[in-house]
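Kindly inspect this one:
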Amino acid sequence: MRVYMLKREQLLAISLDDAWAFFSSAENLQAITPSYMKFTITNSPGEHIYPGQLITYKVSPLLSIPLTWVTEITQVVDQSYFIDEQRFGPFKLWHHQHHFSETEKGVKMTDIVHYSLPFHFIGQLAHSITVKSRLEEIFEYRYNILEERFNKKTANHLS
């Protein structure tokens, strides 16, 4: 099984309290996901993040084909990091770390995603043809939305 990694960092001109409140709420996921993905939360995960929390979605990442995706919040350290892992969905492995650290200029947010695709060679081929670029596009969209929302389009791109 080939495991890929995507890492993104961004400096947000907000407090750690505000960053944590925004990113630890599942309700805000739709706001930072491209509309073409038709992202919809299908359960009521609750207001506060906690280990064991399950979040279910419908999402259409390719060709507008709707897929069910279930992630579990597996680790939470308040105002420091949380981890979500796929329990059911399009990936063979999905392990997404969300890290937050306070700086003099705001909050440095770091996303580290380890992922793998099913179907061995076919999955590797799909990764090189479309999946890698689609994930990069999704995270770039997220970056731009967060710049607009929290930085008023300032240049704080760290990677």
Remarks:
- The chain has one domain: 4-151.
- Residues 4-151 form a domain with the Alpha-D-Glucose-1,6-Bisphosphate; Chain A, domain 4 fold (CATH 3.30.530.20).
- The beta strands are 4-12, 40-41, 54-59, 67-77, 81-88, 93-103, 106-116.
